[in-house]
Design a protein that fits this description.
Helices cover about 40% and strands about 15% of the residues. The protein is built from five helices and four strands; from the N terminus they run H-H-E-E-H-H-E-E-H. The longest helix is centred in the first third of the chain and has 15 residues, at about 1-15. It starts with a helix and ends in a 7-residue tail after the last helix.
Length: about 160
């Protein structure tokens, strides 16, 4: 009986806590499968058949992955990690890499992040809803980033 009284008191205390009365369902924008496919196809088309393209949603889950006919096997993981890095830190993977050279270096030890160019966040205003990452471009990270930006530009009308 004492346990029931304690449990009831604890529940009543939680319900009376500030903020619980304001609890509500969240509504978040996210990358749809069609948007992810458009971004990935456009990015691949803007680059070369040697690249791999990964698009992740706002939770960092892989939404779409395309591997060009001439892409190397390791590009799969690199593209995904570049996208994840851009999503997590809400900036290009290159901007994050440069920033963590001197500040917040411990972030580089986090799982799945990578300090290489080629990841670009997908944003609606200040809200990051996903990211695209590329790996394998013959001209390196700048070409990968440019191709990622081309993919996002293809859906710019939906990112308003």
């Amino acid at each position: 009986m004492a346990i029931r009284i304690c449990a009831t008191a604890a529940l009543a205390g939680l319900l009376a806590s500030p903020g619980l009365a304001d609890a509500q369902v969240l509504s978040e924008r996210n990358v749809s499968i069609q948007m992810a496919l458009t971004i990935a196809r456009t990015a691949l088309g803007a680059c070369t058949n040697r690249v791999s393209v990964a698009v992740v949603d706002r939770a960092g889950r892989l939404k779409v992955f395309l591997q060009g006919d001439g892409a190397s096997p390791h590009n799969i993981e690199l593209a995904r990690r570049k996208a994840y890095t851009a999503l997590t830190f809400r900036r290009t993977s290159l901007e994050w890499a440069k920033r963590t050279e001197t500040v917040n270096q411990g972030q580089r030890a986090l799982a799945d992040v990578i300090s290489q160019q080629g990841g670009v966040p997908i944003q609606i205003g200040d809200d990051t809803i996903g990211a695209v990452g590329l790996s394998g471009a013959p001209n390196g990270g700048q070409q990968e980033e440019d191709c990622g930006k081309a993919g996002i530009a293809a859906v710019a009308d939906q990112l308003k």
